[in-house]
């Protein structure tokens, strides 16, 4: 059982409903919310059944999908990166947007796999490949909170497409619960 | 009682069901049941920063993310009173060329052609005509490559921002694509020839066609919302002419005109209203085809897509040749409270967005009207028109003809909320 894509691994963008009241959303979007049938939460497949492999990404990376298929056909373990987006930036000679341009970027906390495309375009990573394995959450959020371009930017960066992934979830919760930023 | 049931309609995007109730050989009720769950995007957008919007709205559709990014960017730029630089506008059109190319090549060859050729799927088609399918895949791939070159990846590209682009695409990488585009233009012209040989079912509908119109170019971004009934509205006035309604059997909203007419958006509407703005090769291919406009057969939207395929290959070549970036790729934004509407032509038709923002650039309100929500009532009406033909057909053929009709619309049910199950019941 392979969970493919960030919707399957973390609930994806739809998991934003987990932080809100979906009934309120229904009222906002639909004239007759009583006609609707929907789930109140969007959750990872692994929360419900045993999953053998999670392949993250919104969208998934084609090379990674091929790697998984080839590995399975050859009865070996898929070779997927265990490091963060930072290493991909270094490999591509992309100058760090966080250090050099003071652009908020959650690449250091995000799994590699996309090819570090956002920093290569001069913008910060917004975490669509989900959390990396080892994240220094505290120093990450301390740094980001100091360079926010608008109030609440840090929590919004973590509470995005992979916002329901435990690591990102906890970072945003920690910031909000300690009132470190003005919402 | 006669019942026709298709548990799962293939080759459409999203999930829904189709119900046709017949009494004494007449249709008493036709419903496209949209049971794909509601996705609440307008709710998610509230209290997000405006620059996050294109990244979030892209996720509404994996086939046409660019359309959702573009309509959002234009709406927010209008709210701030910002105008992007001319080269950024040209790159937006170029990016849209990529999206039309990949989406149309997919629909013509993989989604609709199997219906016209009596095949289960493009895979079955590949057994009999491997070269056709190979070329189709290449036609599509070139569009994807263009999106990747501009936006970093072809699905949910990351370069579009409110104010323009995060950075200019690499000039050499774009120019390196030109030989592929030259091939693609010829392959698109062959697609038009192929489109003329296909056996379309007979059905003529008096549609009200609605599309963006721009005097100087084939309407895709900016311009006015034109109707074949003569209604001409600015994008900001769109909601005065077209109204969305929530109907019980559908998690997608349905649209109609202020005069309570159903209307059609998409390739037929664009071709009929904007053929004068086609690029020269596309115009020539249309003239040589002998097809008379307005084209009113929904199945023949495949032909309109083929002409557009030529157009967008041709326009892409021109835009790449003229590409000369200089200065910043985006304008600096001065935040202020405001409201703005934006509309662009997604491959499936007009896509309208409206946002209200506060002084900090936070979204207070979002409204998104996707093309399929506008077409849903029209698809239901077309099925009504098709019933006299369906009744005289054997069960399997009737089912296929109705399914094919729905597919010819290239409905993106996911976008409009979201699949189809056909059930014909005779009382």
Structural features:
heterodimer, A: 183 residues, mainly alpha, two-stranded parallel sheet, 9 helices, globular, B: 427 residues, alpha+beta, 4-stranded mixed beta sheet, 3-stranded antiparallel beta sheet
Q: Could you give the topology of this structure?
A:
The complex is a heterodimer of chains A (183) and B (427).
Chain A: E1 2-4, H1 6-10, H2 22-29, E2 53-55, H3 62-73, H4 85-91, H5 97-100, H6 117-120, H7 137-146, H8 153-158, H9 166-177
Parallel strand pairs in A: 1-2
Chain B: E1 3-9, E2 17-23, E3 26-33, H1 41-45, H2 53-58, H3 65-80, H4 86-116, H5 122-128, H6 130-151, E4 160-161, E5 164-165, H7 171-175, H8 178-197, E6 210-213, E7 224-227, E8 232-234, H9 238-241, E9 242-245, E10 254-257, H10 267-274, H11 280-289, H12 301-322, E11 338-346, E12 349-357, E13 363-369, H13 371-391, H14 395-408, H15 413-416, E14 420-426
Helix pairs in contact in B: 3-4, 4-5, 4-6, 4-12, 5-6, 6-8, 8-11, 8-12, 10-12, 11-12, 13-14
